[in-house]
Amino acid sequence: MSRGLFVTFEGGEGSGKSSVIKKLVEELSKDFPILLTREPGGTKISEDIRNIILNKANVDMDYKTEALLYCASRRQHLIEKVIPALEKDVTVISDRYLDSSLVYQGYARGIGIDDVLSINLFSIDECIPDFTFLFVVRPEVGLNRISSSANREVNRLDLEKLEFHKKVFDGYMLLAEKFKDRIIKIDAEKPFEEVYKCVKDILAKRLKDHYE
Ligand code: TYD
Predict the structure, then answer these.
(1) Residue 133 forms beta bridges with which residues?
(2) Model pTM?
(3) Per-residue pLDDT tens over the stretch 101-150
(4) 36, 53, 54, 96: which to mutate for ligand 1, most atoms within 8 A of CB?
(5) Nearest CA to ligand 1 atom 6
(6) Separation of 3 CA from ligand 1 center, angstroms?
(7) What atom of ligand 1 comes closest to residue 108's alpha carbon?
(8) What is the Cα–Cα distance from 114 to 96, expressed in whole angstroms?
């Protein structure tokens, strides 16, 4: 039996990827076997690890510790959920994966993309996505979307966050260059329906090629 496609979605905050993914999966799973997931993906061990990362009491957490915990959570989710589905020829769509660590921990936190890549390669047994949709939205636009959806003005904290968002944006652009063959850039500043159609056309074609 062939192995399902492993597809990931990436992008900064406010890129709108989650709403597009939801609609895509509703539509395409009528014709193809698809598992939608995101880390920690409801697996208990991954969730326990993720709770350590997100716990506000852990303000002293070292950036490399954080990167290693993301790897641990990722591996468990991969072993328990992603690989078993791929082996049944189910296509797995993951909302964030490897590239989030390369960008957030490697680039934005400053550990270095290559170091974070090497601990990830160890963690995921080289289970690299077949392709990745990168939702490209300028950081100011992404941030505006978040604050307007929360129905409030952009505040000082948001502006401080803007610096971090800019790094995330630059990091994703570097990755898109580094992994040109795998990463498909999507102009996600366009209206929802256009973004949706663009991703759907690409994905539907690849699913057809794989399953038919
Ligand atoms: P969340 O609100 O769950 O999702 P999203 O932004 O995709 O709607 O936030 C996930 C946050 O975790 C996001 O800021 C990116 C960060 N993150 C990392 O820093 N490293 C990682 O490896 C992953 C998977 C996420």
Answers:
(1) 9, 184
(2) 0.95
(3) 999 999 999 999 999 999 999 999 989 999 999 999 999 999 888 877 76
(4) 96
(5) 13
(6) 27
(7) 19
(8) 18
